[in-house]
Amino acid sequence: MKHVNRTAVNEFFLLAFSHFHSFQNVLFCAVLLAYTICVFGNITIIQLIRMEPSLHSPMYFFISIFSILDIMIVSVTIPKLMAILIQTKKTISFIGCFIQMYTFNALGETECFLLTLMVFDRYLAINSPLQYAAIMNSRFCFKLAVLSWFLGFLTSFFPTIFTFQLDFCGPNEVDHFFCDLTPLQNLACSDPFISNITTSIAAVIATVLPFFAIVGFYINIIYTVLNIDREKKKTRVFSTCSSHLIVASLAYGSAIIVYVNPKGSQYDKFFALTYTVVTPLLNPFIYTFRNREVKNAFRKITRQCINFAKPQKHNEMVIPIS
User: Fold this and answer.
1) Half-sphere CA count of 43, side-chain side, radius 13 A
2) What is the pLDDT of residues 263-299, one digit of tens each?
3) Mind listing the pLDDT tens digit for each residue in 170-191?
4) Angle between helices 138-164 and 193-203 (to 10 degrees)
5) SS in 3 state form for the chain?
6) What average pLDDT does range 96-103 have in this prediction?
7) CA atoms within 13 Å, Cβ hemisphere of 185
8) Per-residue pLDDT tens for 4-19?
9) Rounded distance, CA 270 to CA 13, Å?
10) Which residues, 6 or more positions from 284, have their beta carbon under 8 angstroms from its beta carbon?
11) How many CA atoms lie within 13 A of 123 on its CB side?
12) Which residues partner with 93 through β-bridges?
C-alpha cells in the first residue's frame, strides 16, 4: 500500500522556558549578554591568531576554526531563543525548524570531529616532535579541517532526513528552545523507531567514538609526559593540553547525555544550554587565560594598538634667519 504523508503541521510552537513566566526578561538579558561576549570573544581570538605570526601554527589554526564554529552555533539558536523570550509569538515554520535542526546538529558534530583533530595534533607534537612539522603542514591541516566539516554535515544528514519523513498531524508544541531531533521525533504521529535509531547511531559516530579516541590519545600523551625528565617541560606540555581537555569535557559530556538516549528527557533543554550557550561562552576565556602564548600575543597586539593610537610628536623644522 502506498504511503500517504499525513503531515498537517505548518509550524511548531517552541515552549522554551515559558514555565518560568516571571524570569523571561532576566533570561533574555542573561542570554543576550552571553551571546555578545561569546561572539566578541571568539572574533578576538580569530583576529589575534590572524595578526600574530607566533600563533601561525596547526594548533592555533584549529582553534580559529573552532571559534568560527562557536560563533555559527550560537547564531543558529540564541537569536531565536531571545525572540521567543520577549515575543508573544513563539512559533517557527515547519521548513525553518528542520533547517535550524540540521544546521545546528551539523555544526555541533563538526565541532566534535574537530576536537578530536586538535588532540591528534597535540599527540603528534608531543610523541613525534621531529616529524611533526613535516606531517602537520598547512595543506594537511586544511584537509583535516575540511574532513571534519564534511563528516559533521554528512553524519547529521541521515537522522534529519528520517525525522523529516515522519508524519506530523497534530501536536506541534516543542518542549525546547530550538528545533532538535528528539523533541520533534516525540511529536510524530508515525513510528519514529528508524529515526530514533539513526539519531543514536549518529550520536555514537559523532560523540562517543571521538570521545574514546580523545581519551586514548590523552592516555598516551600523559604516559609520554610522565617520562619527561625536566619538570618545567612537563608543566608546559600539561598546560598546553589542559585547555583542550576542559573544552572537550564540557562539549562531549552534555552532548552524549542528550543524544545517545533516543527518547530524551524533560531536562534535555537544560543540558542543551550547556553546549549552546555556556560552552561557547567559556571557550574564548579557557583558551585565552590558560594559554601563555595567547596571553603574550594579546599583550603584544594591545601594546601596538596603544602605541599607534598615541599622537605622534613631529619635529618642527627650524628655519635659520640670515
Assistant:
1) 7
2) 655 667 777 887 788 888 888 877 766 677 777 777 7
3) 778 888 889 988 889 988 888 8
4) 160
5) CCCCCCCCCCEEEECCCCCCHHHHHHHHHHHHHHHHHHHHHHHHHHHHHHHCHHHCCHHHHHHHHHHHHHHHHHHHHHHHHHHHHHCCCCEEEHHHHHHHHHHHHHHHHHHHHHHHHHHHHHHHHHHCHHHHHHHCCHHHHHHHHHHHHHHHHHHHHHHHHHHHCCCCCCCCEECCCCCCHHHHHCCCCCCCHHHHHHHHHHHHHHHHHHHHHHHHHHHHHHHHHHCCCCHHHHHHHHHHHHHHHHHHHHHHHHHHHHHCCCCCCCCHHHHHHHHHHHHHHHHHHHHHHCCHHHHHHHHHHHHHHHHHHCCCCCCCCCCCCC
6) 95
7) 25
8) 455 677 889 988 887 7
9) 18
10) 38, 41, 42, 44, 45, 67, 70
11) 15
12) 11
Report how far residue 132's alpha carbon sits from residue 125's, in angstroms, rounded to the nearest whole number: 6
The total of other beta-carbon atoms located within 10 Å of residue 303's CB is 10
**What is the distance, to the nearest Å, from the Cα of residue 88 to the centroid of all Cα atoms in its chain?**
30
Q: Which cell goes with 130?
A: 621531529
Q: Which cell goes with 146? A: 575540511
